[in-house]
Amino acid sequence: MEVLREEAARAAAELEAAEVELDRRVIAHEELVEALAVSAEAAADVEEGEDGSEVAPFPAPVSAAAQGPVVPRRREGLAVSVLSLDNQQILKVLRDRPGAEPLRARKIAAVLGIDAAVAAKVEGVRSKAKRLAERGWLFQKASGAFSAGRWGAEGSAKVAK
Questions:
Q1: Rounded to 5°, angle at Cα 24 from 67 and 29
Q2: Per-residue confidence at 152, pLDDT binned at 50, 70, 90?
Q3: 139: domain range?
Q4: Cα–Cα nearest to 28, from 68, 85, 64
């Protein structure tokens, strides 16, 4: 029995390490996909040059030190579809829930069906929500809770009470 318990504990530790590594790889994949999407969007935009000809601008270089997926700043006319699916799901949870109380990352993770008992998974949700808040897609309270607020048709933010 003792040997089996030790083996089970070792297997559980290896599983947790593998889950953390998988989370890192998923985030790296999201970063790559979003960076390529931003690059493709910038390449598709056409500007008029000094002589009146059309010139496609070069995309801004993405810093190697940039953390997390590229989340564009929220602005008028920018659709939610420019965000990764994970970020869209976080926004949906906060927008579609009854009541206006802000949610903490652990609760958002639970609503998304993510195991909220695994700290690394909750931290992934918290990181994404913070990035969305930094870019104007969400509001973050001093308590660390997040809220979608109310976005008017013109794109101005009104805090949900």
A1: 75
A2: very low
A3: 74-161
A4: 68
Question: What per-residue string of b and e applies to 103-137 under the rule 16 or more CB within 10 Å gives b?
Answer: bbbbbbbbbeebebeeeebbebbbebbbbbbebbb
pTM given for the model = 0.52
Please report, to the nearest 10 degrees, the dihedral formed by the alpha carbons of residues 106, 109, 114, 115 taken in order.
10
Q: How far apart are CA 18 and CA 24, in angstroms?
A: 10
DSSP 103: B
pLDDT of residue 13: 92
CA separation for the pair 26, 31 (Å, rounded): 9
Q: How confident is the model at residue 161 (pLDDT cuts 50, 70, 90)?
A: very low
Q: Tokens for 100, please give them.
A: 């206006």
β-pairing verdict for 157-158 and 150-151: antiparallel
Instruction: Give me the mean pLDDT over the 51-67 stretch.
Output: 50
- For residues 60 and 95, membership in a common domain is answered with no
What are the start-end ranges of the E strands in the chain?
47-48, 54-55, 139-140, 146-147, 150-151, 157-158
**Where does a domain end: 70, 91, 126?**
70
